[in-house]
Task: structure prediction
Amino acid sequence: MRLDKYLAEALNISRSETTTIIKQKKVKIDDRVAKSGSEEVKGKVYYNEEEIVYKEFRYFMINKPKGYVSASRDDKNPCVVDLVTGVKNLKAAGRLDIDTTGLMILTNDGAFIHKVTSPKQEIYKTYEVECDKEFKREFVSAFLEGFDLIDSDGSIYHTKKAYLEITSKNKALISICEGRFHEIKKMCHEVGLVVTNLKRIKIGSLELDSALKEGEAKELEEKDIEKIFVK
Ligand code: URA
Result:
């Protein structure tokens, strides 16, 4: 890859800005000062003596706060993609309702988004759920057997196996492998409960980092991404 493209992508700056920093002798390839943006990158690139690593695909874990929408643009509300700045073309891998908090992945890797959100992959997502009334023991088998629910387009579908683990009177962990609109809220409604708080804490085996405050993001590494696909 040409040096100017490499710098523009890695630093999220324009091609003309790359020319400026090269002229200012702020860019090095290995231990020599780079001369021109047209040279091919064959070595480690440094800007202001700091190594710059260009990655085609980037993955971020965010702890979504309430009030943020999962879309990339919205006229009224802030968007989850606004929580990571300086990286182009980020999209959310799956959706959470505006009032749901917790684990979301933002990435510029479209194939990854498709894989994570496809129900065929059966990647379970786990939610902490708080309801207005008590979770009864008999609900466990009802969630496993599934419910007939109405989808956004009016069609009826039967939910895939969902796992309910009651953690206290009106709190539970629910794991589902589909990303249908309001799915957990609708399932709880079927057993007479209203969801009062919903937080996603796990995708596959990847858990929300407990150090990440609402609204914060951290870049994921390959080993984190792999956990998503571990059942
Ligand atoms: N189920 C819901 O009802 N809402 C979400 O945000 C996610 C799953």
User: Anything to note?
Assistant: Residues 3-11 form the longest helix (9 residues). DSSP finds six helices and 15 strands in the chain. The chain has two domains: 3-52, 59-228.
